[in-house]
Here is the input.
Amino acid sequence: GENVEQHPSTLSVQEGDSAVIKCTYSDSASNYFPWYKQELGKRPQLIIDIRSNVGEKKDQRIAVTLNKTAKHFSLHITETQPEDSAVYFCAASIRGGGADGLTFGKGTHLIIQP
Amino acid sequence: IAGITQAPTSQILAAGRRMTLRCTQDMRHNAMYWYRQDLGLGLRLIHYSNTAGTTGKGEVPDGYSVSRANTDDFPLTLASAVPSQTSVYFCASSLSGSGSDTQYFGPGTRLTVL
Here is the structure.
């Protein structure tokens, strides 16, 4: 089945600096890669996603890049703010093999230092 | 519009007891999912349903069962709870089970099995 690796597990950056979180996936059939933000005690919330026919997508301070050949994708947050502090999860779609859904990375705890 | 709701919010359960976690969505989404979230392990897919009347097994289905009698409801049952099932359980839904539709998460149920 699909395996998603996410790095780093913890990332501390100064407010205003950029943050980059990286993920790799194993199943070349995966075609959808969402990123979720989860604040303490809350549900995961989608912040951006990318599909396999696109190499990059931006939404204000957030961007995601996808390299299908290398099977990795990354989340970029620019001009970080205190409210960006949260746990971020990458995910890849599971297709076939009897399991439809998402395989998640183990998460990155992003800490924005004032 | 409520979106997706779960009940109960939290529960403490004795080992060996039967428990059903409820999930309801009013978005007329065809696909629904159950995930468990454990510290350091991210979210893992338990069961899914691509449409009413069908269900499938995810990554960690043992000890859990689901049913999908209609579009809106997707209950998760623990027939005989064990301490290793202590976790936060999230229900999610998406418009279709194509693997590339956005999944929306419920608020979660925190379950403790003693």
Remarks:
- Chain A touches chain B at residues 1, 6, 30-32, 34, 36, 42-46, 49, 51, 89, 91, 93-95, 98-107 (CB under 8 Å).
- The radius of gyration of chain A is 14 Å.
- Chain A is about 0% helix and 55% strand.
- Chain A has a mean pLDDT of 92.
